[in-house]
Specification:
Elements: H1 16-37, H2 46-62, H3 68-89, H4 93-135
InterPro entries: DUF4398
Domain DUF4398: 47-126
Coiled coil: 74-136
C-alpha cells in the first residue's frame, strides 16, 4: 500500500521552494512599490504636444470657428492644450499626455464637424443648381 501522506517531515518543515517564495514575493512587491513611487517618469510628451497643436491648427484653417458646435470643441482643445503645457512644466508628464490626447481628439472632432458642415453646404448648393437646370428644361 502506498502512503500518500508526509514522509519523514516534521509538521513545521516546509519545502525549500515554499520557504523562499514568501520573502521573494515580499521583496518583489516592495521593489515594485519603490519603482512606482519614484515618479513614474515618462519623458515629456513632445510628440503628442506637436500632434495636438497640428490638429488645432488644421481645425482653424478649415474654419471651425464658423460653426458653434465645432467652436466649442476647438475651445476645449485649446484649454486642454494650455493645461497640458503647465503640467509638462511641472514635470507631470502622464496627466499631460492624457490631456494632450483629449485635446487632439477634440480638435479632430471640431475639424470633422467643420468639414461636414462645408460638405452639406456644397451639397445644398449643388441641389439648387440641379433644380434650376430642371426648371429651365435642361436634362
Amino acid at each position: 500500500m502506498l502512503y500518500k501522506g508526509r514522509v519523514n517531515r516534521r509538521p513545521n518543515d516546509k519545502p525549500a521552494l515554499r520557504r523562499l517564495a514568501s520573502p521573494v514575493a515580499a521583496l518583489a512587491a516592495l521593489l515594485g512599490l519603490a519603482l512606482a513611487g519614484c515618479g513614474g517618469s515618462l519623458p515629456p510628451p513632445n510628440d503628442q504636444l506637436a500632434e495636438s497643436q497640428a490638429a488645432i491648427r488644421a481645425a482653424d484653417e478649415v474654419g471651425a470657428e464658423a460653426d458653434p458646435q465645432a467652436t466649442l470643441h476647438l475651445k476645449l482643445a485649446r484649454e486642454q492644450l494650455e493645461k497640458a503645457k503647465k503640467l509638462i512644466e511641472a514635470e507631470e508628464n502622464e496627466p499631460a499626455l492624457r490631456l494632450l490626447e483629449r485635446a487632439e481628439a477634440d480638435a479632430e472632432l471640431a475639424l470633422a464637424i467643420a468639414k461636414a458642415r462645408a460638405t452639406q453646404a456644397q451639397a445644398q448648393e449643388a441641389l439648387k443648381q440641379v433644380e434650376k437646370l430642371q426648371e429651365s428644361g435642361v436634362q
